[in-house]
Amino acid sequence: MTGYKLLVKNARQVVQVSGSRESVKRGSDMNNLQVLEGAEGGYSILVDRDGIIADLGPSREVEARHCSDTIDTVVDATGRCLIPGLVDAHTHTVWAGDRVHEFAMKLAGATYMDVHKAGGGIYFTVEHTRGATEDTLYELLKERLVRAVRAGSTFVEVKSGYGLDLDTEVKMLKVTERARQSLPVDISCTYCGAHAIPKEKTSQEATTDVVNVQLPRIKDLMSSKQLCVHNIDVFCEQGVFDVTQSRDILLAGKSMGLNLNFHGEELHRLHSAEMGAEIGALAISHLEEVSEEGISAMAKSGTVGVLLPTTAYNLRLTPPPARAMIDGGMAVALGSDFNPNAHCLAMPLVMNLACVTLRMTMSESLVAATLNAAHALGQSDRHGSLEVGKLGNMLVLDAPRWEHLIYQMGSHQDVISHVIWHGDVVHRKQ
Ligand SMILES: N=CN[C@@H](CCC(=O)O)C(=O)O
Ligand SMILES: [Zn+2]
């Protein structure tokens, strides 16, 4: 007799996303969703006490295989659908000081860079984040991650980048590590010390500070297990870090074993997509201004394009060319880009925007918000699909077909009936 943590039983539809342990779906394969449906009695998923999927298939078969086992919790999903927990591949979730006043300025016509150059934008948030205690930042992060989980995310990337000095960047990374150790959500931690040029430095001085001061300190804190950082990010943009500076910072991170995952081609075409592909970037975010050559280079290198539809929506930018990317064989992922400029943690809304504004199909959008997002964070071996051996992170949807999660725009709180993380029910619809 074996003991298990959770059985989710009798679901009408199980969207595994993938059933062959592939690490990513590229190009047209993003439309090949692995879906189980049609069995009499539905489908069940069994999660072991380590939070790992132990069995999955037609309910009658799963029940027959485990009729003498003990199961701690049973969730009846009769008439409902199961999908993997959503993965948010790009967030700036640790900061103090909202920028609701800037939203009004932007609605009135100011551009993102107008606000930034006038000392607002990232600089406003840096000032407030530098002044906040670790406990305050932790409480703010916790509140935001609870919201993300309620909206279906079970794995979230979290960046630093509102310190721009060693002490505040380390403070942000420590807050992220505390959340990673204590909250019921998986976190991929990104060092983004090169998010803006600190007011007191030139871009070259800031590059040298990141490479020679901040990264070595972070490396020490990682060695002594005080921090666990997975990725390195840079805002490669005209007037911020140029392509050469970004490359130097990314390569310094790569030599420490960090995944390269950066902001590129957002407001100007600098050909950072080609640079990222050349140095083996795992992912590049934004890409509103990417060129055809950049798309080919990323398709060839396998670099994931992390698309952030909330940014183009809020800033009224031309959206990234998602169709050309997917049709060109790239792997595309999605992120909420939660930050004080784009205050959205709801991946179902991001998926809706991806379908409508980026012209992605609903299948592409689900793959982008699960398997491919997990791959962009280097963790699709554990996240992003419902398969035996992967984490028991899943959503029970109160709907006859999974597409309702995207279709019922703004109603994800009614569509998601349970959020399950490592086999524990961490959110239940009221
Ligand atoms: N573009 C750079 N970074 C963020 C915005 C950060 C901010 O405005 O605070 C982004 O991805 O959109
Ligand atoms: Zn960002």
TrEMBL record:
It comes from the Eukaryota. Its cofactor is Fe(3+). It is an enzyme of class 3 (hydrolase). It catalyses: 4-imidazolone-5-propanoate + H2O = N-formimidoyl-L-glutamate. Pathway: Amino-acid degradation; L-histidine degradation into L-glutamate; N-formimidoyl-L-glutamate from L-histidine: step 3/3. One of its GO terms (molecular function) is imidazolonepropionase activity. Gene3D superfamilies: Metal-dependent hydrolases (3.20.20.140), Urease, subunit C, domain 1 (2.30.40.10). InterPro entries: Amidohydro-rel, HutI, Metal-dep_hydrolase_composite, Metal_Hydrolase. The keyword Magnesium does not apply. Keywords: Histidine metabolism, Hydrolase, Iron, Metal-binding, Zinc. GO terms for cellular component: cytoplasm. One of its GO terms (biological process) is L-histidine catabolic process to glutamate and formamide. The keyword Aminoacyl-tRNA synthetase does not apply. Its EC number is 3.5.2.7. NCBIfam families: hutI. This is Probable imidazolonepropionase. It comes from Littorina saxatilis.
